[in-house]
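Whether sequence alone determines local backbone shape is best considered at the level of individual chains. In the encoding step, the backbone of a single protein was reduced to a row of integers, each denoting a local shape. For completeness, the protein is quoted in full, as a sequence line and a line of structure tokens.
***
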Amino acid sequence: MTEVKLPAKRAFEFGAYVSGIAFTADGETAAFALGSGAVKLVTVADNAVREVAVHKGAALSFVAHPDGVSFLSGGDDGRIVRVTRDGAVAEIAKFQGKWIDVLAAHKSGGFACVVGKEIRYWAPGATEPRTLGPHPSSVTALDFSPDGSRVAAAHYGGASIWQIRNPSSTPRKLDWKGSHIAIKYAPNAKFLATTTQDNAIHVWRLANGQDMQMAGYRTKVKALAWTADARYLLSDAADCFVCWDFAGKGPEGQPPVEYGFGDGIAMTGIVAHPDSPFVCGGFENGALRLGDMDSKRDLELRPGAETQKPIRSLAWSPDGWRIAAGGEDGYATVFDLKSKS
């Protein structure tokens, strides 16, 4: 039997809940936001770790800054902070008495956060944000369209899509009853997907507003990922890779493709490769699996025996050669797919 060579792995114990992960554009720095309010900056080449004090309280949201060399962090202290790869910290905004638990950014330079029922959007180069909203309820998730011209918000009763070049315009409303938790544009901009409180996924075909519902999950779906070619929509909340096929007329009324079964252990996170047919899933027992969407085969990158705590954050580097994961207990790993252990 041919021995499978696993990607080289670097492991870290940060001692606090990993609430978010992001890479610099070159993939050489991985940043981990923690429930302690700190950010750990890992230089992948030499395993060096720098700790930066960022929030008075937990870091709740975390994304790569559009400049490619820094990060944006939101905390329960009401602050949005820019953290450079060298550890410099600069406050961008402070919203007294608010939790900044939703952030989104686009490579074109804009970024946004949620403040209650409103979105605050910073145009490229702007120092002050524009306000989008209010919405029918608190906004629970944001996502930019692939070209960066729109930002979509999930909230009670559906989703709203804003044209950010004209913030005073009326948003497009996509209605569906109930609370919507996560939101994700398809890479071809033809579909917008949300997860709902009812253990289901809801998807709108944006050309004509047609919507579809995919249900049957045992628990609440919290994470979504589209493959780079926009053919498959994947989710967590099952014990395997659940792949809804959007070729042709789409998946409504058809069963999903499923593979990589985890013996009843629920998936707690899912991310798709930026340009190739691979996905990575994290599980409730700390395991990580790499899935191949072409062959429908999977490889265990990390067994759950390493840490029995759920995976809560996952990220691919922009070039697709590195994967980072972090869990409830602060145990984190970075995998280098170019090198083998």
